[in-house]
From TrEMBL:
Domain of life: Bacteria
PANTHER family in alphabetical order: ALPHA-GLUCURONIDASE A
Active-site residues, Swiss-Prot/TrEMBL: E305, D384, E412
Gene Ontology biological process: xylan catabolic process
Domain Glycosyl hydrolase family 67 C-terminal: 470-697
UniProt keywords, alphabetically: Carbohydrate metabolism, Glycosidase, Hydrolase, Polysaccharide degradation, Xylan degradation
GO CC terms in record: extracellular region
Protein name: Alpha-glucuronidase
Domain Glycosyl hydrolase family 67 catalytic intervals: 153-469
SUPFAM superfamilies noted in UniProt: (Trans)glycosidases, beta-N-acetylhexosaminidase-like domain
UniProt keyword Lyase present: no
InterPro entries for the chain: A-glucoronidase_C_sf, GH, Glyco_hydro_67_aGlcAse, Glyco_hydro_67_C, Glyco_hydro_67_cat, Hex-like_dom2
Keyword Hydrolase applies: yes
Amino acid sequence: MFVEEPMEGEGPRVHPAWLPPEAFRSLGARRILLHGEGLLIDTVLDEVSRACARYGGLVWHSPSWNVDVDLVLALRGADELPNPAVEAARAAGEAALAELGDDGTLGDEGFVLARAGDVTVVLSDAPAGLLYGLFHVVRLCAAAFDPTRPAERHRPALRRRMLNHWDNVAAHPVMGQVERGYAGGSIFWQDGRSRGDLARVREYGRLLASCGVNAISVNNVNVAHTEALLLTERLGDVAEIADALRPYGIRVHLSVSFAAPVILGGLPTADPLDEKVRLWWAATTRRVYDRIPDFGGYLVKADSEGQPGPFTYGRDHADGANLLAEALAPHGGVVHWRAFVYNHHQDWRDRSTDRARAAYDHFAPLDGRFRTNVVVQVKFGPVDFQTREPVSPVLAAMPATRLAVELQVTQEYTGQQRHVCHLGPWWSEVLRFAPWGPGGRTIADVITGEAAAGGGLVAVANVGDDLFWTGHPLAQANLYTFGRLAWDPRRDPTEILDEWITLTFPPSATADAELVRRTLHEIMDDSWRTYERYTAPLGVGFMVNPGDHYGPGVDGYEYTRWGTYHFADRDGVGVDRSRASGTGFTGQYPPYWAQVYESPESCPDELLLFFHHVPYGHVLHSGSTVIQHIYDTHFAGVEEVTAMRRRWQRLNGMIDPSVYQRVAERLDEQVRCATEWRDQINTYFFRKSGVPDERGRDIY
């Protein structure tokens, strides 16, 4: 793996993530013919040309010559070529597609890969399909040219695979240039203006396209005044970003303030039913599309944590979302309307108020009222990206609404890219969850929708202007994994991680490829659960320091207005969300899970304290008591992180020294922080409960 000076025209000096030049060796050593026209075809041509220039291959772009080739990349609708080998390859691709069945179409982004004699062929209906097909060939390396490889058809399960950037144009006095960002500053904005240098943005677009992401929003959902101006007088800054990302098929979206007609338009109201407000949004949106014809749409955080919204005018969220959807509809745009709406001025003494209930209470009654170009964007869990939460019941409650699941790639509550915490297994658990009971439809089915018309998958981005994009080189795997799961939410996350390892640490450039692969799997495969073991136990959540959310602060949020309580006392711990004696949150689920979650005896151990307040002596399904589980897991978590660090040390001298050193430094911090978590959590609960550790270990 290399961090190297770029070739002329290749862009900024930055870590190549999972697209190092060496990953293109197999492709770049071949003879390649590209057949088709268009902006994205030009991108494919640039990619293969650079690879061939580096590794000695040859490339031809149609109209072509009668040449011998190893790889054909062609649009199905392109003209025939006077090349028998190429036409035979195209015919083989068509035959393979017919044999694979279905309707014979690939859509705007799909492709088929097949073999015809000694030639590999990638066919697509549209240029984006060839771009994705090219990166698939890169992932396969030499296997793409295996004569025995069967034909494959690939189409994204989700039409919209989107990243939300929480980047501020003007640096926030507390949050900085990127809110909840752990990899430096924004790649788009700096000191109140556009960064200007778009080379890194183009490189970012390349990374995103290679893993399957096709949309991003470029500013924070908390829209301050400077950010609000991106919709109008500073729209040119957004257009420049869109121009840089367009060659990789990435559509730009914009976070907007619901109060924009007042803030920017000088109107006395932003009431969604006011005719002047409707006309303002229509005219403003038309100007956006005049400047950015392929603009994706708006992202809105409304009536949440101080952001303005329709509640100000006695309207509901369907009224608010439909206002913007109406303005976007003539241009093919969508509005992503976040369901993260709750009362953030709660009284911790009032146990009837429950933040977990809020999204369902606000949105489920509105099912069927949203326009078809509204996507209600729902956090995967009912609270706020905690390390362990149940899947949000909203995702099973709105069958007549397009729903997207929102994940958090940036590690706000999972170690902030200072800790190794591979999130793929967690996300896969969410996507495979069956809200109506085992064997039924899954969350992946919900967000896919009929004929792939669902809301898709969205995540808060984790990149910044750090040399390693994500601060921690191993956190790059989370970004890659999100894109691959968004393309196919049913993929095995372990297989995806293996893909990332092969690309990022190419065997041909690694001293001992098998040792590197094995070591990374040993460190990363279970790292989410390791993080869970040494932090907040059994689904209770939010035992973090207020403000920066890093490190243990057991009572940090316990008596605040945010509704993030664990209710630990001398007798027990946990939040009673049952129907029988608590907030009734369990009743928001379909009957199967409502019944499972209702009782401490049937509730899964890992979610027990999310749903129930139980004594410290309560016996888990594992056979351990709650208090002993807390002690055991926190000691085990530190031991596992210490083992991670020891395993990483095997790779010293085998990989790029700058990567080795950065990860080694982060692992030192992870061991320190995990030890702090262990000691503070165990001491807190020992002093609360008075129950000693049955193994006699040191608790302070």
